[in-house]
Amino acid sequence: MQARTLKIIAALLIISAVFMGIIGYKISQEDSAKIRAAKQIQPQNTEQTNFSYAQKLIIANRSMDKGEIITTEDIQLIPYPLLVEGSYTKADDIINKKLESKVAVGAVIRANNFEKQSALAPYINPGYRALSIKVNEVSSAGGFLKAGDQVDVIFSMQASKETYNKSMSRRLLKNVRLIAFGTDIESEDKNIVVSDDKKKPSSKTIKESGKSSRSAVLEIALDDIPVLTLAEERGELRLVALGELDIEEAASDADLIDPELGAQKHMSDADRTAFIRDVTGLKPPVAPRSVYVYSGDSVETIKVRN
């Protein structure tokens, strides 16, 4: 009985071993199939992992305002799915350049961010306008004027029927800023740059922008624009350059102006009325009087006619 039991146990062990061998074989075959399948899929995953956009563009790391200078910390080069016109791919192309328009954070930096929107607008002070008048070598201080100079505007008129047989010569405007002269325009660093073709000035351009200039652009107060236009139509205008001491004295006088009353006018209402009457023979309507009403820290200007 004992020997028979041992035989049964031995037979069961053999059967178990065979069964386990079959299971192990099947498991090994399944693992091999999985490995082969993984090897077939792996190249496709590799291609997806290594996928990159066709170009990299420079974007802004932060929001920047007009007038700021681009630094290395302000920009970064990132892959971009689309080709943007006027964009940059090299940081050296824009480092230390000055922005002429506002740039939002994350925006692609473009060439038009560094282009001035207007040739004259950045140089005109609030409350003033740029007005061009005809000049020649004689009427522009021998053609030696430059953009940025301070000038007086002189009006002269010869006697004739059209001028009611009157001759006249008077200083219309004083201490007027010359924004542009010929092809030159005053830059923010007080240097002269060519504004017509946005190229560096050549010796020929500099020569022609002086004595052969045919126009001068003046910064004129709003109330003086009609007077200057009338004066150019009725007679001759000349520009007289101011000396350094007179310019400094005018600047010190401007600092004494009460900011609550606004900027000082180049012509008083009385002078403006007298000039129009003398030139046209017509008496303009009386200018309204200004009454200033103070309320705490604020001031209100009220025009009152007689």
Question: How does this structure look, described?
Answer:
The chain is an alpha+beta fold. It has two domains: 55-114, Type Iii Antifreeze Protein Isoform Hplc 12, CATH 3.90.1210.10; 121-304, no CATH class. 29% of the residues lie in helices and 24% in strands. The strands form three sheets. Strands 3, 4, 5, 6, 7, 8 and 9 form a seven-stranded antiparallel β-sheet that branches. Residues 43-51, 190-208 and 257-264 have low confidence and may be disordered.
- The low-confidence runs, each spanning 5 or more residues with pLDDT under 50, are 43-51, 190-208, 257-264
Radius of gyration: 41 Å
Task: Return the average pLDDT rounded to an integer.
Answer: 75
Instruction: Give the oligomeric state.
Output: single chain
Transmembrane segments: 6-27
Domain SAF: 55-115
Protein name: SAF domain-containing protein
Organism: Zhongshania aliphaticivorans
